[in-house]
Amino acid sequence: MRIEEARSYVVEKLKYALNPRSIAVVGASRYPAKVGNKVVYELQKWGYKGTIYPVNPRAETVLGLKAYHTLRDIEGEVDLVFVAVPAHLVFSIVRDAVHIKAKVLVVATSAFKEIGRGDLQNEITSYCRKHELPLIGPNLVGLGSPYEHFNCGFIPYLPVPGPVAMISQSGANLLAALGTSQEDHLGMSFFVGLGNKADVDFSEFVEYAEKDPHTKCLAIYIEGLDSPEAFVKACRKASKPIVVIKVGGSAIGAKAAFAHTASENPEADTYYDDIIKEAGAIRAGTWQEFLDVSLALGLEPPLRGDNVVLITNGGGAGLLSCDHFERLGMPLSELKDISPLLAQKIRAYMPMFGSPLNPVDISGTASVIQYRGAFQQALRDPKVDGLLGAICPTAVTDVLGVARAAAEVRAATKGLNKPFLMICQGGAECREAIRYLRDHGIAAYPTAEQAVNAMVALRKASSD
Amino acid sequence: MRIEEARSYVVEKLKYALNPRSIAVVGASRYPAKVGNKVVYELQKWGYKGTIYPVNPRAETVLGLKAYHTLRDIEGEVDLVFVAVPAHLVFSIVRDAVHIKAKVLVVATSAFKEIGRGDLQNEITSYCRKHELPLIGPNLVGLGSPYEHFNCGFIPYLPVPGPVAMISQSGANLLAALGTSQEDHLGMSFFVGLGNKADVDFSEFVEYAEKDPHTKCLAIYIEGLDSPEAFVKACRKASKPIVVIKVGGSAIGAKAAFAHTASENPEADTYYDDIIKEAGAIRAGTWQEFLDVSLALGLEPPLRGDNVVLITNGGGAGLLSCDHFERLGMPLSELKDISPLLAQKIRAYMPMFGSPLNPVDISGTASVIQYRGAFQQALRDPKVDGLLGAICPTAVTDVLGVARAAAEVRAATKGLNKPFLMICQGGAECREAIRYLRDHGIAAYPTAEQAVNAMVALRKASSD
Q1: Is B182 in Cβ contact with A428 (below 8 Å)?
Q2: Which residues contact A460 (CB under 8 A, 6 or more apart)?
Q3: Residue A159 in contact with residue A146, Cβ under 8 Å?
Q4: Which residue among A395, A427, A449 sits closest to B42, beta carbon to beta carbon?
Q5: What does the mean pLDDT of chain A come to?
Q6: In chain B, which residues have their Cβ closer than 8 Å to the Cβ of A358?
């Protein structure tokens, strides 16, 4: 339901959604195959430190915890009420949640507006608003934070801790992002599925994320925007960079978005181009770009000029990159035009058949020492705004050694506040190097074009 | 150097390049850090079955093998001469190779035309042509075939066996592809780096690949095309699908392509659009798309109509997909318009809050049985031309179970000759499922848009 702007009582209470002292799980089943059981299981498994109150009218215990027949039977204070019961039972649970003065309500239950039960959804939402009980959902997968060891929902894993706040209407895509986070070390500060976003809206999570100390960047997946003015206003107020992916732009996608999260898309897709631009956010085109740009915005400073130097041991990665830079409207300049001095100096770090053009090809035989020297020279040159390094594993490349050298150079040049991204195209050792680099604060990618997308986004983040 | 068309003596002798009975490695060093040592080491490590003759004027043995001071000292027949000595020594090696009647020559050495020594390169090439000794290279990383356990070059790994012939001018990008192959099970029939392609040209490998029984699809990475007519002619003759990535289209990229592999790009990039179209090949825009489309063309039949059904347990993956289908000019139709009967039948495999639209959302609670049923119904419906399945790992999803079911359905419906692609968005279990699916002949991808790119390419492959 529409809001004029982010409501302060909601923003204030979202801390209970992401860092609750106690949680009541309504619909907590005794049977492991049931989703209501999974919620309690995952809370326990990932080390939630607060109190869990399973609520189940027919159980005495759930997963070793004392169960309560109703919310009203709980003696202690309840910060968060998580609801996983069939749709027709939800309103009575909501009334109980208001009665026990819960701080925030998360409704996972599906089968509301997305299947034509908009009236019931609106009724519940209005009731929550009247009682100033923020409702997240319904029809969502969950939420959590790796910093709090807090995994609340039907979610098989926590992401690795890091800078990106992931705010997603889609549960499945949120889960995909969390899986990617674990596997490829895309660090997150917190994550939330908004589902039908009947009550709590994007704008309120944007304001919350702005205050969250772990969050350096916001990644927002949108299927429909009920309150575009509130969204734009909250984003414009935010100092942190924001990347948005908006789906449902295709004719059939608009229908699917309604069937999925009851999202309405009466406007053409270009309308969202304008909204996102007005919000000062960056729009990603594909899911991969969404993740890649989020990572860069979370880890790297903005790129303050167009002078990017590309240092590679493989000409191919360099070519893919420079073509893609030009495709995105930010062509590379030749090194001699960026810095004649650097073009000379960098010769010391390559064999005679290397190329100091830009891409700077230090050749397939490049050693860790040559890489380190070239990286240092490039980053320290005052004419250089940003550095893109590429590692291609030849039979003589010490991939992890180069990654370590990159991390050292990054640590030593942190004060220069320049983006330093890496490409690492290849197999298992590249995947390992990417994780290592990301763990050490360098946005690293498995293909050239992904890194270039990220670098261009960092330029946009500077000009906004 | 330019050729009018693929030369039959070259095509004929390429079998000695990819399946040689004996190899002389000239420049085989005793020192493990040297590239000339790596070549012998990798041949041994990956189980090359033929005879290896290390050639080194100062060594008696290399890695346990008897070394020869010159090529002329070798008593046995030599199919392939691999050259890894400095550029100024290459011509005399080439003369020796002709003298001993070697079948094919692979020159890894750099520092020819790409640094201004075009004259020397041309002189050597003319000499080879006069003596009908095919020269692959110079300035390349190597070549090989997983089916032959044959890894010949500065290459840290063999790919997994499979349908894609990878023909790449760039060594680094070839290595990246091989690494990806091992890690993500992109199966290859053979691979070759062409480097400066002074003599042997793309067209000749195209003709060779056409005859190779393991090859189902050709993936060609081009930095420059000296003989476009020969290329077009060979591709048009080929019955196997071909995907091409052509780099060097940007202003700085054209210079970098010359510095890298002495590739000349006097024409605008659109010229290559035309050439590739005329060749009946599919042009990929990014490296990832190049790999993804290759995999699909290698594993899947062409898509003979536009009726693609998308079955997913996550609405988000469905939305990303259908938006991308529309972006690529091949929008999905609603299921009721494709097949009213299927739209009814498929209801049996989803809960009441699922959606039979298209994407067909069988919901986050979907079981292996529901997936199997939905996949079967969709593939068997005569109105359906192709199927795209998506697995999003919720807390109750048996990801590998669904992958197994998909492989079973695929095996049972092979005769229908319809593409069946999968999306598996998420973490470690998705990566494992993707490998499993690929190993079982299903083109599976970690993001929705990658799978859609591949499906659209399969449609193009049908209309060509």
Answers
A1: yes
A2: A282
A3: yes
A4: A395
A5: 95
A6: 252, 256
Residues B82-104: pLDDT tens digits?
Answer: 999 999 999 999 999 999 999 99
Are the beta carbons of B168 and A221 separated by less than 8 Å?
A: no
Per DSSP (E only), the strands in B223-296 are 242-246, 282-283
pLDDT band at A340 (very low <50, low <70, confident <90, very high): very high
Q: Please compute the mean of the pLDDT values over residues A309-318 and round it to a whole number.
A: 93
Range A334-353 average pLDDT: 91
CB contact under 8 A, B427 and A248: no
- Contact at CB, B286 and A395, closer than 8 angstroms: no
Q: Do B325 and A431 touch (CB under 8 A)?
A: no
Tens digit of pLDDT for each residue in B363-383?
A: 888 999 999 999 999 999 999
Q: Which of B115, B223, B394 sits opposite A319 (nearest CB)?
A: B223
In chain B, how long is the greatest CA-to-CA distance? 79
**Complex prediction ipTM:** 0.94
A137 touches chain B (CB under 8 A): no
Q: Is A363 on the interface with B (CB under 8 A)?
A: yes
Residue with tokens 């199966």: B187
Could you say which of B260, B316, B450 has the minimum Cβ distance to residue A315? B260
- For residue A317, what pLDDT is reported? 93
| Interchain CB contact of B176 with A (< 8 Å) | yes
What is the rounded average pLDDT for all residues in chain B? Answer: 95
Q: Are the beta carbons of B252 and A396 separated by less than 8 Å? A: no
pLDDT digits (tens, 9 = 90+) for A152-207: 998 888 999 999 999 999 888 999 999 999 999 999 999 999 999 999 999 999 99
Interface test with B, best of A40, A245, A319, A450 (most B CBs within 10 A): A319
Tokens of residue A152, six digits: 């609340």
Q: Are B370 and B397 in contact (CB under 8 A)?
A: no
How far is Cα A399 from Cα A427, in angstroms, rounded to an integer?
A: 11
Within a 13 Å sphere around the CA of B333, how many CA atoms are in the beta-carbon half?
A: 15
- In a 3-state reduction of DSSP, which class is residue A111? coil
pLDDT at A258 over 90: no
Instruction: Give A-chain residues touching B433 at CB under 8 angstroms.
Output: none
Tell me the nearest-neighbour CA distance from A18 into chain B, angstroms. Answer: 20
CB proximity list for B63: less than 8 A, separation 6 or greater: B37, B40, B41, B44, B54
Contact indicator for A421, A296 with CB cutoff of 8 Å: yes
Shortest CA distance from A112: residue in chain B: B353
Contact B315 A172 (CB under 8 A): yes
Q: How far is CA B389 from CA A81, A255, B26, in A?
A: 35, 19, 51
Q: Which amino acid is at B449?
A: E
Q: Which whole-number Å values give the CA distances from B116 to A349, A434, B2, B109, B122, in the listed order? A: 20, 36, 18, 14, 12
H-run or E-run covering A150: strand A150-153
Q: What is the mean pLDDT of residues A96-111?
A: 96
Do residues A208 and A227 lie in contact, with contact meaning Cβ atoms separated by under 8 Å?
Answer: no
Asked if B325's CB is within 8 angstroms of A171's CB, the reply is no
Residue carrying the six token digits 């946009």 = A460
Q: What is the β-pairing status of strands B282-283 and B308-312?
A: unpaired
Q: Using H for helix, E for strand and C for coil, what is the string for B396-441?
A: CCCHHHHHHHHHHHHHHCHHHCCCEEEEECCCHHHHHHHHHHHHCC
Residues belonging to chain B: 464
Contact B355 A260 (CB under 8 A): yes
Q: Is A252 on the interface with B (CB under 8 A)?
A: yes
CB burial string B383-412: b at 16+ within 10 A, e below: ebbbbbbbbbbbbbbbbbbbbbbbbebbee
Residues 34-73 of A with CB under 8 A from B: 35, 38, 42
Q: From the centroid of its chain, how far is CA B135?
A: 22
